[in-house]
Design a protein that fits this description.
- The complex is a heterodimer.
- By secondary structure, chain A is α/β, with parallel strands linked by helices.
- Chain A contains eleven helices and nine strands.
- Chain A is 36% helix and 14% strand.
- Chain A has a five-stranded parallel beta sheet.
- In chain A, helix 5 crosses helix 11.
- Chain B has one domain: TIM Barrel.
- Chain B is an alpha/beta fold.
- In chain B, the strands form four sheets. In chain B, strands 1, 2, 3, 4, 5, 16, 17 and 18 form an eight-stranded mixed beta sheet that branches.
- In chain B, helix 4 crosses helix 6 and helix 7 runs parallel beside helix 9.
- Classes of the chains: A alpha/beta, B alpha/beta.
- At the A-B interface, helix 4 of A face helix 5 of B.
């Protein structure tokens, strides 16, 4: 089959075949990352606009780098520079970018549903780089790609997602991706941040770290946002760390070859012990590297690139 | 208000339904000097305007005790004129407009201004309501005695529920002195900070901040307790939660003086409708679960909920056409209410036609003591003619409201208003797009 989507707004609508196609494309691009001359001609002459209306470091850099490696011209607009601060609507900002002949928009926005909203009326592809607490599809794709490199098939693999699930787009996208790839997913965290309703999505919900981590083959940590402290979802960061922070003892409950993942940015000493983040079990930096290849694949496929014309493995 | 039409009117051969009197028969209906009469004198018959109503239902003009006409201050969304035309198009001849205007209707001067505009421009009966608190800020009582004298039929801080219990207690105690009903929009704001839709599986999937039913249930309980304590009449606006229905049911069994309304959208739709982040399904209170929806229907059937009110809340397309989080709450409802209510209760076989129309005529009128909702001899000739079977599709340009933020755009609705009369004057007729008024 060939890739037919123009937009990547989330994982939920993707078929397993589409996810596999992104992985195959990612693998081909990853093979080019180590070359001396890294630039490919795939998107030469195209302009990608990164519309980042919410702060981001890793994702923004990775998308910029990915577009540049594909030969595209890249313009990044962030919140301060855009006219949305002057009261312009998102629709008008996006229509203007389209009128300037941009070929693609990568959107990061604090409002859930905003990437899908743009996709409904824009004539150019929209790639979601995170919309509120809804989805962050390229993050889940790079997470699952990283796990695939470790484990091969994810079918039956036990994956724990630990932390602030309620407000996390990374968790939602990973729930969709992992369940489509037939992994066994358990969500863990305080009851206020991991409501039971998540079970309806085909995952387990637990508030007991020990039983959840026992024999898990991967644990995905989520950043505890400091601003969450001002709400009443849990008493304090200290209490969170003592109940749900991943430390050496707790990591020892994991399966022997288990990996520790984190989408960044890390709060060292809060959701994860500093040493653990740098340990041999951590694949956090592999995730970052794979993030470039996944985003190259997303930009390439959504711009109409054919999986049959990928760069040959060198 | 348009002046009463003194000329004789003869509505012939329709199914005349008057829920208040139990009348339901194929008959002729007559009006003279803007009032209903038993028959026209022989001398008047030849010059009467004769309307052939065969196949149509002829009922009292519908009554809606919860609309937002946005005047003064937000006339880009709606005006008293455009809102009243939307009312007429939906078969409504009497409406009560909410005081959350800009500035809010919290003093007699603004009420007088609103009444002046109503006198000049409204094509149906429009009654103002006033604020409970000054500026709807929930801090200090508005002068409800002066508001009553100026002509309000109720007070409410609709959209900004009074959070302070002591203030609400005094508000209902004080207003009861004038027999002025207090209508409350039941929402504990500490539970809904940043919330945009019902808290449930759909909000979880969409990553939108959930709005728990508890926010409504707690304030409904508060109002039941305050009404019990003071004896004052409190009317609960747009009930949306199953638990709230249960609380109201038990309170009514004990004889507490509360009344309650449900909106057509909460009776017909659920939070599943939000899966595409369509802001025309974003309102306050939010669309809830199927279990809540069914409880509301049950509540109407057993009388726990007294009537239907639209919460007609116009917003322009450019205000609604934004990210879901940023869109304002509210939908227009006057022009779609009748077919939606017919669908939920009548076409489904849950209620017969007279009982269904009772929810939109006598019952809402009686809650606030309005002279409306009946086809009694001598009553104003406020009459609605509709075809219960005709299907039609709402479109942005087809609606008479200034705004088109309707969840039913493009849907096929069954039941269509053919003619609306206010005091004997034809104010809506789709076959004659510019009736007198």
């Amino acid at each position: 089959m060939t890739w037919t989507r123009r937009h990547l707004t989330g994982i939920e609508p993707l078929s397993v075949e589409e996810i596999e196609q992104i992985f195959a494309t990612t693998a081909a691009f990853k093979a080019t990352l180590g070359r001396n001359v890294k630039k490919l001609p795939s998107l030469r002459g195209k302009t990608v606009v990164n519309l980042f209306l919410e702060p981001s470091t890793r994702t923004r850099l990775a998308f910029e780098m990915a577009a540049k490696r594909l030969g595209a011209d890249v313009i990044t607009l962030d919140c301060e520079a855009s006219s949305t601060t002057k009261g312009e609507t998102l629709r008008d900002t996006a229509r203007n970018i389209e009128a300037l002949n941009a070929d693609m928009i990568v959107l990061r926005h604090s409002a859930a549903g905003s990437a899908g909203y743009l996709a409904r009326f824009l004539g150019i592809p929209v790639v979601n780089a995170g919309d509120g607490a809804h989805e962050h599809p390229t993050q889940a794709l790079l997470d699952c790609f990283t796990l695939r490199e470790r484990f091969g098939s994810l079918a039956g693999r036990r994956v724990v997602i630990l932390g602030d699930i309620l407000f996390s787009r990374v968790a939602r996208s990973n729930i969709w991706a992992l369940t489509k790839l037939r992994a066994r997913v358990t969500l863990v965290g305080p009851s206020t941040l991991v409501p039971e309703e998540f079970k309806a999505l085909g995952v387990e919900v637990s508030h007991d770290l020990r039983s959840a981590l026992a024999d898990a083959e991967a644990v995905m940590l989520l950043r505890i946002q400091h601003e969450r402290q001002n709400s009443s979802h849990f008493p304090s960061l200290g209490e969170y760390t003592s109940m749900f922070g991943l430390n050496k003892t707790r990591a020892s409950w994991l399966a022997p070859d288990a990996v520790i993942m984190h989408p960044g940015p890390i709060n060292r000493g809060v959701e994860i012990d500093s040493e653990l983040a740098d340990s041999s079990r951590s694949v956090i930096l592999e995730q970052v590297t794979n993030g470039i290849a996944v985003r190259m694949a997303a930009l390439y496929l959504c711009s109409g690139g054919s999986p049959d014309h990928l760069p040959a493995a060198s | 208000m348009p002046a009463p039409d003194p000329s004789p009117l003869w509505i012939a051969g329709g199914r005349v339904i008057d829920p208040a009197s139990g009348r339901d028969e194929i008959a002729d209906l007559f009006s003279l000097d803007g009032r209903l009469v038993a028959s026209l004198p022989e001398t008047e018959r030849p010059r009467a305007r004769r309307i052939d109503a065969a196949g149509l239902v002829v009922c009292p003009g519908l009554v809606d005790i919860h609309v937002h006409f946005r005047e003064p201050g937000q006339t880009h969304k709606e005006t008293i004129q455009s809102g009243s035309r939307a009312a007429a198009a939906g078969g409504f001849t009497t409406v009560v407009c909410m005081p959350n205007t800009a500035p809010p209707a919290d003093n007699a001067g603004i009420i007088q201004y609103i009444k002046d505009v109503i006198d000049r421009e409204a094509v149906v009966h429009v009654y103002p309501s006033g604020c409970i608190t000054v500026g709807m800020k929930g801090e200090k009582l508005a002068p409800s005695g002066s508001l009553k004298r100026a002509g309000v039929v109720a007070i409410t801080d609709d959209g900004a529920c009074v959070q302070q219990n002591e203030l609400m207690r005094r508000a209902v105690e004080y207003a009861a002195m004038f027999g002025l009903p207090v209508m409350d929009h039941c929402q504990d704001e500490s539970l809904t900070h940043g919330s945009v839709m019902h808290e449930g599986l759909v909000s979880l999937r969409l990553g939108l901040k959930g709005w728990p039913s508890a926010a409504e249930d707690i304030v409904v309980s508060r109002n039941v307790i305050l009404s019990t304590h003071t004896g004052a009449h409190i009317h609960l606006q747009h009930i949306s939660s199953a638990t709230a229905v249960d609380i109201i049911r038990r309170a009514k069994q004990r004889g507490v003086r509360i009344t309650a309304e449900a909106s057509p959208h909460h009776l017909a739709l659920t939070d599943d409708a939000l899966l595409d982040y369509d802001t025309n399904f974003k309102m306050n209170p939010p669309l809830r679960s199927e279990a809540d929806r069914q409880a509301l229907v049950e509540g109407i059937l057993d009388g726990t909920l007294d009537c239907i009110a639209t919460d007609h809340a116009p917003h322009t397309d450019y205000e609604k056409d934004v990210e879901f989080d940023y869109a304002p709450f509210g939908i227009v409802g006057l022009e779609t209410a009748l077919p939606v209510v017919l669908d939920v209760f009548h076409h489904s076989g849950k209620l017969n036609l007279p009982a269904t129309l009772d929810l939109l005529t006598r019952k809402p009128a009686d809650i606030l003591g309005l002279p409306a909702g009946r086809l009694a001899e001598g009553a104003p000739a406020d009459i609605t003619l509709f075809d219960p079977e005709e299907t039609w599709t709402p479109t942005p340009t087809g609606l008479h409201s200034k705004s088109a933020n309707s969840p039913w755009l493009g849907a096929t609705l069954r039941g269509r208003v053919r003619k609306t009369f206010v005091a004997g004057r034809l104010v809506h007729s789709p076959d004659d797009p510019t009736p007198a008024g």
